[in-house]
From TrEMBL:
It comes from the Eukaryota. CDD domains: ADCK1-like. InterPro entries: ABC1_dom, ADCK1_dom, Kinase-like_dom_sf, Mito_struct-func_regulator. This is ABC1 atypical kinase-like domain-containing protein. GO terms for cellular component: mitochondrial inner membrane. Belongs to the protein kinase superfamily. ADCK protein kinase family. It comes from Vitis rotundifolia. PANTHER family: AARF DOMAIN-CONTAINING PROTEIN KINASE 1, ABC1 FAMILY PROTEIN. GO terms for biological process: lipid homeostasis; mitochondrion organization. Residues 42-300 form the ABC1 atypical kinase-like domain.
Length: 451
């Protein structure tokens, strides 16, 4: 089980302010110099609170020191980030927990961060007029107070799990969030169940646990597709440190005897809700992308704010593919190798169309920008698990998006004719997906024969 605790070394991921998030989103899309400057400016900070400061927070929040609250409390944190740090502890009844403690004077620090970002963004816009991310400051001003309240994070985690139970019961057992100890949690302290698990990009440990990485990739894709297209309540920070994998506690195994994975979601501070129309349009857009439907791509991109002039660019940013590949009818048209050739090609396009990219990001609803960030994180997870993107994960996204589109139509028009129409579309969808599955199998056979 060596390496199994690695996920908890990052149990609290850095509260990425929107500048660092933007750097993550646009790593392929903007000139490397911009990304490098933004990372160096905003990411080289990782404060650590002393044990005395931790005790100060405990006394203020619970009226007692950590040693008075817990049977055991490790004074040295196992992780520290810009917002908080995490300590391990053991409750009076012997349960091991992870305790997230907000850094003291964090509110003042957040205000200073906001002022710093405002200055940087305004200065960059003054020097480089095409670099206009002033909307970033407004978004931070709205989101930071929510991330500074750990009770909001705790409620998010419970709502996320509840959504899977109610809306996605077929995978509810396979998606988990650590249990919150409400009696030991406040807006600045969060006590959670401690869970052993492998970080989602730690392929060797996942394999040692008897789990197949491609099973994990499928689970991650389906879980987040359901959140985006069916739940409308999305964990927007799914980078590797926030996703743990462990064998199903029930001991369930696959047909081949491999252990089935359970996905454990950590750090629930950054969620976004998609209203009905945004969620339906976003699902219809992804359905169009998966099935190379140029008209659907254009129609739904325009509905989401990209405009008649930038819909092709929007499709390219979502898929990391040029327009001619987006509308290519070949079954693997969206699969990205992720090698240097792909990166160079994308960055060449990014340099060429940077003003248009800036304009597109200004137009899009803020919630869609967070979906871009989420997609970027999920793409990185997929690359780690599969050494590139996978046709199978795109098929999962296509299936979930198509189901969401059908459900949206049924909810708006409940007539018998509408039901028949949706039913026929579902039959055609299943036939199309079956054809894609056959094509996937043939591609795998051809690949195996060429080795």
């Amino acid at each position: 089980m060596s390496g199994v605790h690695v996920g908890f070394k990052n149990y609290v991921s850095e509260m990425e302010d929107y500048t660092s998030s933007l750097a993550n989103i646009l790593e392929y899309l903007v000139p490397q110099e911009y990304v490098q400057i933004m990372r160096e400016s905003m990411l080289n900070r990782c404060p650590v609170s002393s044990y005395e400061q931790v005790c100060e927070v405990f006394k203020k929040e619970l009226g007692r020191t950590p040693d008075e609250v817990f049977d055991e409390f490790e004074p040295i944190p196992i992780a520290s980030a810009s917002l908080a740090q995490v300590h391990t502890a053991r409750t009076r009844d012997g349960q091991k927990v992870a305790v997230k403690v907000q850094h003291t004077h964090m509110t003042d620090t957040a205000a200073a961060d906001h002022a710093t970002v405002q200055l940087i963004v305004n200065t960059l816009h003054w020097i480089f007029p095409s670099f206009d991310y002033r909307w970033l400051v407004e978004e931070m001003q709205e989101s930071l107070p929510k991330e500074l309240d750990f009770l909001v994070e705790a409620k998010n985690s419970e709502k996320c799990v509840d959504n899977f139970r109610k809306l996605s019961p077929h995978i509810a057992d396979y998606v988990y969030a650590p249990m919150v100890y409400w009696n030991l949690s406040t807006s600045k302290l969060l006590t959670m169940e401690f869970i052993d698990g492998a970080q989602v990009n730690d392929v060797k440990t996942i394999q040692r646990l008897g789990i197949r990485p491609n099973e994990v990739a499928r689970l991650v894709s389906e879980a987040f597709a359901d959140m985006m297209f069916k739940h409308g309540f999305v964990h927007c920070d799914p980078h590797a440190a926030n996703l743990l994998v462990r064998p199903m506690p029930s001991g369930e195994r696959s047909f081949l005897g491999k252990r089935k994975p359970q996905l454990v979601l950590l750090d629930h501070g950054l969620y976004k809700e998609l209203d009905f129309h945004t969620r339906a349009n976003y699902a219809a857009l992804w359905k169009g992308l998966i099935f190379s439907d140029a008209n659907a791509i254009k129609e739904n991109s325009v509905k989401l704010g990209a405009g008649e002039d930038l819909y092709a660019l929007f499709a390219g940013i979502l898929t990391m593919r040029p327009w001619n590949r987006v509308i290519d009818t070949s079954v693997d048209h969206l699969v990205v190798k992720g090698d240097e050739g792909d990166r160079s090609e994308l960055q060449m396009y990014a340099s060429q169309y940077f003003p248009q990219i800036t304009e597109l990001l200004r137009r899009l609803p803020r919630v869609i920008l967070l979906m871009l960030k989420t997609n970027d994180c999920l793409r990185a997870v997929n690359n780690s698990l599969l050494q590139g993107s996978s046709l199978e994960t795109f098929m999962i996204i296509g299936k979930v998006a198509s189901e969401a589109v059908a459900e949206a139509k049924m909810s708006q028009r409940r007539s018998f004719l509408c039901w028949i129409n949706v039913w026929l579309q579902e039959i055609l969808l299943e036939a199309r997906l079956f054809g894609m599955q056959i094509a996937l199998w043939l591609l795998q056979v051809r690949k195996a024969l060429t080795w």
